[in-house]
Amino acid sequence: MMKRALPALATAGAVALLLAGCSGSSAPASDGPAEITFWHGYTEADGKVLDQIVADFNASQQKYKITTETKTWAVIDDTLLPALSSKEGPQIVAMPAERMPVYADRGAFADLSDFYASSDSNTADLVPQAVDMVKVGGTPYGVPTGFVPLAMFYNKSLFSAAGITEAPTTWDAWVADAKKLTVDENGDGTPEQYGVAIPDHATVANGLWPSLLLSGGGQIVDGDKAVIDSPENAKTIQYWTDAITKDKISPTGLDGIAADQLFSSGKAAMHVGGPWMASIAKDNNIDYGIAAIPAGPAEQAASAIGVAMGVTESADDAQRAGAEAFFSYFFQKDVATKWSLASGWPPLRTDIPLSDVSSNPVVAALSEIAPTGRALLPGVVNSTDVISDIDELTQKAVAGGNVDELLATAQTKIQQAIE
Amino acid sequence: MTTHAPSAPPRRRGAYRPPAPIGGRGPLRHSPRRRLTVVAFLTPAMVILTVFVAWPMISALRLSFTDASGFGREKFVGFENYVRVFTDEDILRAMGNTALYALLFTPIAIALALGFALLLNNPLLPLRGVFRTALFTPFIVSLAVAAFAWSYLLDPQIGLLNYWLRGLGIQLGNVLQDPTLAMPAVVLVAVWKSFGFYMVIFLAGLQDIPTSLYEAARVDGASAGQRFRSITFPMLGNTMGFVVIVALIAALQAFDQIYVMTGGGPYGSTQTIVMEIYQSGFRKLELGFASALSYVLLLITLVLSLTQFLFFSRREKDAA
Amino acid sequence: MTALAASPAVTASEAPSRRVSPQRRRRRLVSALLLVVVAASTLALMLPILIIVFTAFKPVAEVNAYPPTLVPGAWTLDNFTRIFTELPFARLIANSFVFAGGVTAFALVFDSLAAYALARLDFRGNKILLIAIIASLMIPFQATLIPIYQLVSDLGWVNSYAGLIAPRAADAFGIFFLRQFFLSLPRDLDNAARIDGAGELRIFGSIVLPNAVPALLTLGIFTFVNNWNDLLWPLVFTTDAEMGTVTSGLTLLTGPGGIIPQGVMMAGSLIALLPLAILFLMIQRRFVESVGTSGLK
Asked: Which domains does chain B have, with CATH numbers?
């Protein structure tokens, strides 16, 4: 009988420990500033500036004290769920914007409608597309910390070697220039230098093809309907597939990271990338230029890379008030300007003039093209599946599949994903 | 329930049984001293396993009947998740892929391990210690790092393998983005990393086989192949059974290198069940569904392993 | 192919002096053939390891260069300095030792005790317990991660060594593995001891365990290596950067845009490999010795 008692004993012991653990959980300190933990993924020099902004906020008042923890974005994504599930999570967390809807939908983030409505929140002048990123079903669940459209980076030395003086501004010019910049000296069928690096899956911020589709006049999701199967999208995909496979202006099978590397190693003359390409290109001694993604037949649109932060459900009232106070502080004009210059991303307020950010040429250049920015899949909860459906579409198209069939399949799958 | 004790002393009919606590059948099995002993041996491990393995498994089972994300609201949904496991296209595809992966990985890894174990067991081979260490090294590399190294080797632009093979006139192309080559590639990485460990287990098993048996066979004129078939293979039955189950379980749970090298692509051709579990749980925050899928995987693995176990136990009994 | 141990004593004593030569010549030929085959295949299999070693010493430009090189053209220690400046790497290595070492120590003790009970002691539910233990191997860690984390957090052990080690202090694989091994050991010695009245713990400690050294060493290496290389658990469990392990620390190396600095990553991996390699080299000799003395039955 002892043996059967054993599991019971062990479980009883475990339960006892659990209860002991539970009762030991801390009641919030009744005096002293409310302690708030803030997770973010700014790991480079920009992270240090953000930490400084937080420190300044802490110094500016007595009621709240924020402590930051820096991890990579991927690690935050992997560790946030367990932390929240055991109430060990941060009260403020920043994450890539397309990850926000799924967390918001599951109740991880607090509804910030009242915050936005209040007059001293400093949110009235925020870039509207940036705010679009944090809304699910019309309700805002966070605030933007970064919003920048993908830009075209080009290698000035390779340009001048090919006799091209300006970055292209339309698709046709883009392809023409790329053809001139694709060089296969030894004629073995594999160019040593490509005109452009166009990934066909896992693109930079998953934004390259959405940019092209939008510029071609098509959309992916409209409200709660998948609308990817449209004549405009078919033309766009066919246009670019032909350019890649027939004119060979880019290798096939690239992903976003490989495309980054191709450009930074000087083997591709043009590349659609994020702001970090500036410092990477500089580290690799590439004389680079920044331009807007060339305009398509319908418009000049660039999918935006967005980062947002929100208040988690593990925050109590005091902590939530503190978080909102921090957000207001963060959006003050001077702080917003400082953050823009440090992060290398355009300012989040529309009323900050270009002259204020001219000290950082990358920021100035990106701010100029900021109007081309469009949020990626705003409000789509299951962005994971939609993005992989888009990837499958583009990858198979570039590999030679039938574009119309692929679009029909993608439409069905995306519709399923957003239901 | 009695357990078969292979070397229990034979029962003498009607004889007086001494009251010593011999490991074997009999009512004295349940003496308090005996039970205390059993408990004492089992307790430390059982406490850990009950608290940190059994209880979370029960938790996960409960979660599998809900739509929980791990935090916030959760709602009981009955068997909905399980139905979805068997009707969702992506999940069914993942099951097919996992089966393919297991079918490729298990025999190849075991054959390679056994082959090298036999070679390294041969006293005619010089520098055996060196080779044993070298062949074991892939095992001590973490799977993620191994995946990085292999991805780098297979990179279509700057990869060494592609470069060398191109020199020989073979165009490897973009292996990890090729729907037909991606799966063999991820299997290869796992085989490369794991065979060293299985090899060491086989070596231990081989060295347990008395050389006198081989001598007798030699004297009888048996060839190398015959010696392998009638001595080595049967005597390895216990070891083989263990390695097969362990390899199978590892194959059915394939995740790390796929996550690093292909992310489940291209077109989901390397998406395995555990990849789906991870993505459902951590990316789509569908912990309830992830738990249900885990339990289906557990059941499949259990059935397959029990079959293997029974198969090899019978062989072991025949061999002994 | 499987030319197994030929006993020199038998043939040498039987053979007349004329037949020794061809015999020895054939053995030398087989030796040479084996050497070539095994050496070639080993070298091929070592290629990825060589990649890790050499890439760690390559400057960034050469890592991405075309045509690719195996051996670095320019050797550099940059990657290594970066590893130690960008991460608290020394602390991470120490944490890895505590984690992997702690788990291995506890697991070897707890697992062998339980395995002994399963292999040698008859009790009701022995087979069922075994199946339950094996079954627990079949659920992937990703599924039980959240409940385990919640449990450990409720115990108040988040970010502590106790919490990191406890869930692994006994493991189903080890119990299964040792149970199989104990089963293969002959019972004569322990039965004799039992008849003499020795207690089970004594039998376990002085008879069974000494004969199980190769299995214990194998399991020890397996457990240590796997926990040293484990990523998901230390990553999720330690939110404090200083408490992480080497593997979880390396994930923090991802640069902006998801670009991984290959050279630095390889340097870190190489350093992470070294303790394991040294450990195996040390254990390996004992492994051979102990098998040599106890193996032939």
From this structure: 96-319 (1.10.3720.10)
